[in-house]
Amino acid sequence: MKDYCTYMDRLTLSPIAHLELMEALEHPPARPLRRRLLPLGALAALFALVCAGAWGLWLGNTAGTALLPGESTLPALAAVSPTPAPSWDPQADTLTVPPLPEGYAFTQEALALPDLTGTPCMVTCTGIPTPDTTQYVMTAEQILSVFGTEDPTDLAISYGWEGFTLTGGYILRADGTLWRAWIQGERGEDSFSLVLAPGQDPPMNEHYEGYATWTENGVEVSGYSLTPQEADGSAGYLARVFFRTSQLGVFFEGRNAPGHLDPAQTMVKGIVRRGTDPLHGFTLEPLQRQLPKSLGTAVLEESPSPVPRVHPAR
Predict the structure, then answer these.
(1) Poorest-confidence range of 1-10, 148-157, 227-236, 302-311?
(2) What is the mean pLDDT of residues 279-294?
(3) Which keywords fit this entry according to its UniProt record (predicted)?
């Protein structure tokens, strides 16, 4: 420090330099105003952003809203309703199909299914489980997986099953492979049964002649109707269709209360339209991925025994 002071004491200025220094100290140059205003503007903008963020956070964390004209207090915000939980249990062994959404309706055109009541019928016992097979109950989630959906409302829209209570099951061969699966539904006096057989012909026990045949989505479909006499003497109504896709043999029967064609006709149209759809048809793949382990090595051999039978006339 002593050396620094000695150094400074030795410094001398020329008369001209001394005069310029004194003038500079007496009249300092004015700073441009813009250099001062720009930082102040930036600070003001930053302050506005901070205030806006704080205001938003306050609104998001308080149960209030802006005052309406004429109000002197802040009205409380309405409580936000949580998303409702599914109205069905995925692990239950039944599934009730909800009503059709508002605005949906079905057309009334009926399929021309010939009535084969009273005509000869050949009965084959191919659907009876044998001791080397095991039967399982489907869960509600597995039932929906057959139709490629997770929403029960889709079953009301696509198949007309609103209000039906569904149950299902499947049978495994001794080697653990899937032999057959079925889904049944009931709603009062109305009912239906859907049977699926992977890689097999349509699984049915009654064989009639004279049924109708047509093509839907490139798949040959056959069908007929029956009007059996009920215990009270009235005539019921059954609509049956069967077909085979590249993956499944399909048999469906819809049964109505006496004196009605629906919902059997509506259900049959839905089964034919969706079941033959190559993109939205029935599938057992999700179920097959969940199959229990092998039950043994024996494989069920089907040996149907044809028995002629004539269906009772009306």
Answers:
(1) 302-311
(2) 83
(3) Membrane, Transmembrane, Transmembrane helix
The string of pLDDT tens digits covering residues 174-194 is 888 899 999 999 999 899 999
Helix (H, G, I), strand (E, B) or coil at 165: strand
Cis bond before residue 84 (omega within 30° of 0): no
H helix and E strand count, the chain: 7, 12
Measured CA to CA, the distance from residue 181 to residue 145 in angstroms comes to 12
| Burial class for 142, CB neighbours closer than 10 Å (0-12, 13-18, 19+) | buried
Does 48 have pLDDT greater than 90? no
Q: Are 258 and 235 in contact (CB under 8 A)?
A: yes
Q: Are 227 and 235 in contact (CB under 8 A)?
A: yes
Q: Where are the alpha helices (DSSP H) in 150-258?
A: 153-159
Take residue 140 and report the two structure tokens written for it. 């509600």
Torsion over CA: 94, 154, 252, 118 (sign)? positive
Q: Which of the four pLDDT bands, split at 50, 70 and 90, describes residue 111?
A: confident
- 3-class DSSP assignment, residue 36: helix
- The per-residue DSSP string of 183-199 comes to EEEEETTEEEEEEEEET
| Token output for 164 | 């039906």
Q: E strand or H helix at 222, and its extent?
A: strand 219-226
DSSP code, position 235: B
CA angle 257, 262, 268 (to 5 degrees): 115
DSSP 72-107: -SPPPPPPPPPPPPPSS-TTSS-EEPPPPPTT----
Counted residue by residue, the chain has a size of 314
Confirm if 183 and 194 have CB atoms less than 8 A apart: yes
Q: Measure CA 224 to chain center.
A: 32
- For the chain, what percent of residues have pLDDT higher than 70? 63
